[in-house]
## 1
Amino acid sequence: MAGFEDHAVTRETNPKIISNARRYTGNMVVAGVLYTVFVFAGAYATRIDDLPRWALVVAALAPLLPALLMLRAYVIFLNGIDEFQRRIQTEGVLIAAAVVGFGTFAYGFLEEWVGLPHLPLLWVLPALIGVWGVAVCILRMRYQ
Amino acid sequence: MRNRLKVLRAERNWSQADLADKLDVSRQSVNAIETGKYDPSLPLAFKIAKVFGLPIEQIFSDDEVAQAAE
């Protein structure tokens, strides 16, 4: 009967799941490195005098490419997990969309009508990713 | 929905990880199904039935039907 008990803390042993997680980590690391390079290069480019406007636009939009690579990595990861894990992930995304969507909507009114400090739109995506991460952790614990 | 996954697994001396490998799902998924926190899709339920070599209705039962039988 060894090993029959519930294994709440046992690590995954399925090679397919492990390789999918490793591929996701690898893809995210590559995208993360590219993102860092593009952000620093973009920030440097904005300090160059007399840089044409089109070049500034390119520098400003360049970090979007690695961000899209991160999205691609996540979609590949989603397609490689089982239906229960996919449910946790999609619930996490829905919670993040609701929290950040309604949070920014409410803050927009507070900003316009009450005079709260202006927050750049740049923070919406990081907020989505952050809330999604926390939501997935909570959901995992709930289903444990 | 109720299921007899834990009992059937015990009869075969399989760990959750063993069953997860046979079903090609995560161990956490097996745990969630066993504890009734997640109801599997029909294709996964059929796969579970195939792994145990039993008809699906001998593994899964409706809550109300199971309560009425008790």
Note: The longest helix of chain B spans residues 42-52.
## 2
Amino acid sequence: MTEPIPLLALADLFPRGILPYALGGLLVGLGASIIYLSTGVIAGASTFLESTLSYVSDIDRFNRFTYLQSRGWRFAFTAGIVSGAAIWGLVLDPGIWTTEVQWWRLLGGGFLVGIGTRLGKGCTSGHGVCGVGSLSNTSIVNVATFMTFAIGTAQVVAALGVSP
Amino acid sequence: MSTTERSPLFLPAIYLGGIVFGLGLAISGMARPEVVLDFLQFDDFGLLFVMGGAAVVTGIVFFVATTFLDRAPLTGDEYKRRVKSFDRNVVIGGSIFGVGWGLSGICPGAAYASFGVGNYPILWAIAGMFLGAYAQGYWRSSRSDDTAGQSAERATSQD
């Protein structure tokens, strides 16, 4: 009844509401769970980068047994992610949307993401969703680390006046 | 996991899970770098519900499966938790990933989903990720050759 101030604060914290975020998060968890319960596979999105490079590169690192053995399903997983998002973009919320974030940020940031996720043994899905869901200390440390550096970087870039 | 025991439904199950996963990423807004950057700049905290919500679901499912269930039906594999060994690369890699995520606003799974919703400029990020993964693989492979010496060379020639 006497909540105007907390409600206002809530709207400040969540200007887009929380429904799409919570629903999306539940579906991400559900997708990982479908894979886990049916196959026992713990899905992560970034190993795909290395296992797929094994198709075109002779470098030892990419041709390890675990990558050669998993590159097929990792390709299927990524194809599923693209397809599921396409269902959203084509059917459920049709319309062309493209990012305004500048190309050099995407390319340079992507390059660091490629290095960092592979060196650090996982990304937002492997460590963030499955590792944290497993209460793995390694994953919790990794997530705390990448969150801290991501927040710092984004704040510095914004403070330098780069937008978007 | 032994490839020979896999059910023909193995790849379809992975693909189906991927579809639900990708749909979730699209709905959540994580496929949009702008939404991620808003979170990292403290303008919109909604992203906490994406990773948090997903981790709660997998946490419950992992707990139930490892405690009460035996083996996955399509592979015959035991249910395990995701526990990786800790070393300094976990922190170094996490730091580099964090700088990249903060600069671009995109992570691997969300990048694939972003391409799926038709955001073609995300190909810059996906190209960058492959280049970065290649660079670290190249560097680490050449480095392990140096330290392991001739035995590594013999191992290389078998590949």
Note: Chain A touches chain B through 122 residues (CB under 8 Å).
